[in-house]
Amino acid sequence: KLQFLYFIVSMSTCSHGTVLGMTTTTKREAVLLAGAEVGLCEYCCLRCSGGSDLKEYSEIKVTRAGDEPCPMCCGVLQIGKAAIVDGVRGVLEGASYIDMKKLQVNIALPRTNMLRSAQWLHKVNPSINADNTRLLVSRIIPDVKSIISYFVSEAFPDMETDNGSGDVLIDLAFENVSADSSLEATWEGVGLKRPRRVQGQTADFTWPSITVVEHKLQETPLHLLTSTLGELPNPTTKPAMSIKISRRTLLIAGRYLKHHRNLPQTPWIMSGKRMGTSSVQEEITAPILEALFPSGVPETRLTTEEPAAKRQKTHIPEGDAVMQTLLGIKFHSAGREDIDVRMFGKGRPFMLEVPEPAVYYWDNKQLQVLERLINEKDEGAEVAVGSMKTVTHQYFADLAEGSENKKKKYRCVVWMASDVRQLQERLTINEGIEIEQKTPIRVLHRRSALCRTKVIHSMEVHEVLNAHWVVLDIVTSAGAYIKEFINSDRGRTHPSVASLCGCPADIIQLDVLDVYCDL
What we know:
The protein has helices at 2-13, 25-37, 42-48, 54-58, 81-94, 113-124, 133-139, 144-155, 177-181, 210-219, 222-229, 280-292, 299-302, 307-314, 321-326, 364-375, 394-405, 482-487, 497-501; strands at residues 102-108, 160-161, 168-175, 240-247, 250-258, 269-270, 273-274, 330-333, 342-354, 383-390, 407-416, 433-438, 451-464, 469-477, 493-494, 505-516. The chain is built from 19 helices and 16 strands.
């Protein structure tokens, strides 16, 4: 009690300017004493008195940790600055990350925290008037999240605190069951109702998300909340604190060339048997794993979170450690080519999502080193990359848009039943034509049975090999099935090269010469 009295005196005599219109220390001291009498912790007493300087909260040396949980912050701030900072320091020191620069702190509080803060502030300092809960808590006084965030940022001055784009994410969760359960019975008063009962089942109360709760509180004036819900009972248990650390996903983009056939874009396993020699994803990702994880790939990354289920779903062989590692790394691209189709030109745009990388920051010179690791890993490399860069999630949206709207240029070797030399005029398209394509028979087992309209922008004869063999260059819209455009897929694609020439036709080899995309 003597320590707390000393706190009140020290806070009431500090000079941090006029607070909430109180120009004398007497008024502030009265609010501090009123908060202490109803059992608020030092931090919440200071909040109610209008303390707007976060440094004041950091200077509090004593806490009423042994007392009952503070009814305003649900006991969260009573955990104290030292315990919170030590917990964060512990997870940072235990992490395997190397280049930690920006810290993002995400804080989850008991769901009744905002309502309790508003009600107790209104009770201890009745001179406060506000239209709604959020205005009362976050604009007039520091909220609990702001105070905790300041503790962490002050403790780690070498790391920039960025709550929008930090590369290291700290998730601080404070749970107080007794504080939240008190609101369950009356929560319907603010329009968040229990789920509808299903015959034969009980409708257990399910908490809405914190975002929904906060939005509802924001929309409801304080006096209506108070009259509807009444005064919330004080929490009877202390809050539990949990701390988790994670790394923002690293996004690396570029363009790839595929020089060999018999190579799928992503790992292709059927009934435990690998299709193709490797995959584009593996050829790109495997060489840079050492750079992303200098101390080695963590053992937890060599198996999936649910290895048995994952292996059963994708039929990955038990001992294929590289494949299991790649399960956590997502590969996106602007379309894809078949396993037997090569990719030339400027390459196909792609993006890698690498979760939990040990090394997050890459400059242009380092990315050029990664390119060389991929392109020079062995003679006659099946895959080459270029234009590598780190990107944001907006690139993924641009990649998806490019996949839908881009044009692609193909070169194909075609066999014709009739004499090609007599058909060159029919094999030339200067102005775009529309074709109707039903889902090809070869992919009908895994694709929806639809009819798609595509555009053949141009077609020309690149070389006549002999009377029955010709090389064609074709420019199409995204998503056109070239093989079916040549052979008509038993009439499922119309018009086709076969129908235009009036004779059977088939495609023997296919290459992508370019993907017209600005990424």
